[in-house]
């Protein structure tokens, strides 16, 4: 199934990923990720509450063909940067062609003449986003209305001389004033003492642990949605913060196992068990890796009629069974 939207930025043969996700055009990765999770739970076959097979199919198609591609585009730094450049170019075009623009929705028309367009844009977008995926049959219409809001917002931003981040558009920097020369004074011991007292405190271990827990939990959510690629990203970030975290290595091994990447699974499951031999997720993943060998071991016997326990298949990843 293909989706056709002709409102807002879509009228320029441009896919408005921000409208698809129902987030502002200046949204940062964390809010984008949070919004994606909300929509994915609504559309994913395992959690979708569609009443008919047709709606179930529509929800699945919306997730696969619109929502997930939008999320991937806006959460990868390089892709988002390129997309932002295109949006800025689009904003300039909107100013040049403002008399020819097609705007149908009332919310977008109001935004055209709004005194406080930044605040009104966010409010109007939030209202539409709350309805965007409530009725799947109206989702494309809602995306179109949000894209019209985005179009008008970009137009107003560009016309007022602001960038997408709200700062003035780039201008030539003013020449730096000459810094007056002052004599160098060697600080005395008494003068040094206050400086030492103002040294920043060491980073909190608790804060780091809290961030790792959030990344771990987020990876678990992505696993439930079968978005294993994003789960890997979250766990790798957690391992960067704490390389010896057995839980993160174990779950990463399990994710790789789900992706049929046995070699990578072996590395991280082995590391998890090295750090904590009783790590439950790692032990479970190890059993999963051993299953094919256990099932096939009875089929292969040596010349003496004994079972071959040399570790064929995936069993060999962890060595011979004791």
Automatic annotation (TrEMBL):
Signal peptide: none annotated. Residues 16-87 form the J domain. Gene3D superfamilies: DnaJ domain, Tetratricopeptide repeat domain. TPR repeats lie at residues 212-245, 246-279. InterPro entries: DnaJ_domain, J_dom_sf, TPR-like_helical_dom_sf, TPR_rpt. Residues 285-306 have a biased composition (Basic and acidic residues). Residues 164-187, 283-322 are annotated as: Disordered. It comes from the Bacteria. It holds the Pfam family DnaJ. Keywords: TPR repeat. Residues 170-187 have a biased composition (Low complexity). This is DnaJ domain-containing protein. It comes from Planktothricoides raciborskii FACHB-1370.
């Amino acid at each position: 199934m293909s989706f056709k939207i002709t409102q807002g930025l879509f009228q320029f043969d441009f896919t408005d990923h921000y409208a698809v996700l129902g987030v502002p055009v200046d949204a940062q990765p964390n809010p984008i990720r949070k919004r994606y999770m909300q929509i994915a739970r609504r559309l994913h076959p395992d959690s979708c509450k569609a009443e008919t097979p047709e709606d179930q199919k529509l929800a699945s198609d919306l997730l696969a063909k619109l929502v997930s591609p939008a999320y991937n585009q806006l959460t990868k730094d390089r892709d988002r940067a390129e997309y932002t450049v295109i949006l800025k170019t689009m904003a300039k075009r909107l100013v040049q062609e403002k008399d020819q623009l097609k705007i149908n929705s009332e919310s977008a028309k109001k935004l055209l003449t709004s005194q406080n367009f930044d605040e009104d844009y966010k409010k109007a977008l939030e209202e539409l986003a709350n309805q965007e995926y409530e009725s799947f049959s109206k989702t494309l219409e809602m995306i179109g209305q949000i894209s019209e809001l985005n179009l008008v917002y970009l137009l107003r931003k560009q016309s007022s001389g602001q960038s997408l981040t709200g700062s003035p558009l780039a201008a030539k920097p003013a020449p730096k004033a000459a810094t007056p020369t002052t004599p160098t004074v060697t600080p005395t011991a008494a003068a040094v003492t206050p400086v030492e007292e103002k040294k920043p405190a060491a980073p909190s271990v608790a804060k780091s642990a809290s961030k790792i827990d959030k990344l771990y939990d987020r990876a678990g959510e992505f696993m439930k949605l079968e978005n294993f690629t994003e789960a890997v990203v979250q766990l790798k970030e957690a391992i960067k913060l704490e390389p010896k975290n057995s839980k993160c290595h174990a779950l990463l091994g399990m994710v790789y196992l789900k992706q049929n990447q046995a070699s990578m699974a072996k590395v991280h499951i082995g590391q998890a068990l090295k750090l904590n031999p009783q790590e439950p997720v790692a032990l479970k993943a190890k059993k999963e890796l051993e299953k094919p060998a256990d099932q096939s071991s009875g089929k292969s016997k040596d010349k003496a009629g004994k079972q071959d326990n040399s570790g064929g298949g995936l069993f060999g990843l962890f060595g011979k069974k004791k």
